[in-house]
Amino acid sequence: MPKPVITRFAPSPTGFLHIGGARTALFNWLYARHTGGKMLLRIEDTDRQRSTEEATAAILDGLKWLGLEWDGEPISQFARADRHRQVAEELVTKGEAYHCYATAEEIEAMREKARAEGRPPRYDGTWRDRDPREAPEGVRPVVRIKAPREGETVIHDRVQGEVRFPNKDLDDFIILRSDGSPTYMHAVVVDDHDMGVTHIIRGDDHLTNAARQALIYKAMGWEVPVMAHVPLIHGPDGSKLSKRHGALGVEAYRAMGYLPTALCNYLARLGWSHGDDEVMSIDQMVEWFELEDINKGAARFDFQKLEALNGIHMRQTDDDTLLGMFVSTLPHLEGGQGLLDRLDDKRKVQLRAALPGLKERAKTLVELADGAGFLFAERPLSPDEKAAALLDDEARATLAALAEDLSAVTDWAAETTEAAVRAFAERTDRKLGKVAQPLRAALTGRTTSPGIFDVLAVLGREEALARIGDQAKQTTA
C-alpha cells in the first residue's frame, strides 16, 4: 500500500507571503487535498537577523485568508538545530562527511588558483581524506559532505522530467558551519525526512539544490522524496516578476479587493491547466489537480486577467456570502474602516439589497465599496462634478415635481417607483433619461450607479424622498 502523500510549504519569515510563495503553497495544498494527504507548514527561520515574528504572523494570516489551512502545528526550523547537528556528525561517523579546517584565506587561494587554471572556483577537497589529527589548533571546522566525483546524480522530476547533474560539478559543500549552525541545504533535508515529506513541490530556482540534497538523502540511506519543480512567475513582458508586475504580498491583493477564491483560481492557472477551463471553484481545482499538468514554461502575470476573473467570481458568489466577504475585507480597504464604522443594521440591510446590482458593475471589492458609497452618504449629499453639472435649475424643478408623484407611491418598490417615474416622464413630455439622470445625481451624488429604480428601492421611501427634496429645494438658492 503506497504511503499517504505529505507535502510541505516552507517559507522564510523575512517578509510577507509574496505571490510566488502563495502559488507554491496552493500547489502543495491542492495536491495534498487531491490525494487525501496532508500539507505541513515549516517556517524556515534560521536566518535570525532577517526573520521576524511579524513576518511569520503575516505569512500565517495570508495562508488563512487564501483558505490554505495546513495540517498540524507550524514547525520552526531554527528550533531543530540540535537535530541538524546530530545528523551532520552522524554523516561524519559514517564516512559520508568530514571536518574541514581550511581557513577563509586558504579557500580563497584555492579559488584563485582554480580561476587561473580555467576551472570552476571552489574548494578543492584538501581535508576530504586527511587525518583529523593534523587539524590545526584554534580552528573550528566546518562539516562538508563527501560528494561523489564521478558519474552523475539524476533527479526524476514530475514537472521537469529527468534532470542529470554531473557529480564533478557537485563540490564537497558545507552542511554544518564552524559555529555549529546548519546550512539551508542540510537543514531542509533533515526536516523533510523527519516530517515524513513524500513530495517536494517548489519553484524551479531550487532545481540545482535538488541534486545536492539528494546526496544527503543517499548518504543517510533515506528515501529521496518525489520532486516537482514549478517554473517561476514572470511579468507580462517575460522578465522576472517585479513589484510593478504584481510581485506583492498577499495582503496587498486583499487591499486591492480581490476575493481569495478568485486569487487562488488565477494562481492555479499560472502554470497549471485543466483543458480549457478558466473559471474554477476550489473543489474543482482539488478534484482536477495533477503534477503532470503543470507547465514547464514560466507563466506570465496579467493583472487584467486577474481582475476579469475576480469579477466573474464576484458575480457567481451568492449575495449573503459576498456580503460577509465584503464586510470582513472593509478594514483592509483604503477608507474601508470609515464605511465599516457607519455600517449599522439599517445600512447592512440596504447593502444586502443593493448587492445584486452592485456586483454586476464591479470587478473588485474596492469597486464594490465605491459603488455602494451612496448608501453611506450623509444628507445633504455633495454631488461630484459631473453630477453637479446635471443638477441645473431645470433639473431641480423636475425633481421637485417628480417628488410629488413619488410621494403618492405607498407600496414602495423598484416596480412601483419605476411605474411612477415613467408615468411622470410621459405626462410631462420628457424622455426617461431627462428624468432619470438628475434623479440619479440627487440620490447618489454621481452619474453612475446600479439601476436607478433599484437605488430607490434600496434607499427606501423616506430616505429617497428626503434626498430628492434636498436637491429640489436648492432651485431658489
From TrEMBL:
Annotated positions binding ATP: K243
Short sequence motif 'HIGH' region: positions: 11-21
E.C. code: 6.1.1.17
SUPFAM superfamilies: An anticodon-binding domain of class I aminoacyl-tRNA synthetases (SSF48163), Nucleotidylyl transferase (SSF52374)
Signal peptide segment: none
Any single Pfam family the record assigns to this protein: Anticodon_2
GO molecular function ontology, one term from the record: glutamate-tRNA ligase activity
Major localization listed first in the record, in broad terms: cytoplasm
Substrates-to-products reaction catalysed: tRNA(Glu) + L-glutamate + ATP = L-glutamyl-tRNA(Glu) + AMP + diphosphate
Location of the region described as Disordered in the Swiss-Prot/TrEMBL record: 112-136
Record keyword GTP-binding present: no
Keyword Signal among record annotations: no
Enzyme class: ligase
PROSITE patterns associated with the record: AA_TRNA_LIGASE_I
Domain Aminoacyl-tRNA synthetase class I anticodon-binding: 344-469
Function field: Catalyzes the attachment of glutamate to tRNA(Glu) in a two-step reaction: glutamate is first activated by ATP to form Glu-AMP and then transferred to the acceptor end of tRNA(Glu).
Subunit details: Monomer.
Family that this chain belongs to: Belongs to the class-I aminoacyl-tRNA synthetase family. Glutamate--tRNA ligase type 1 subfamily.
UniProt protein name: Glutamate--tRNA ligase
Organism: Chelativorans salis
Gene: gltX
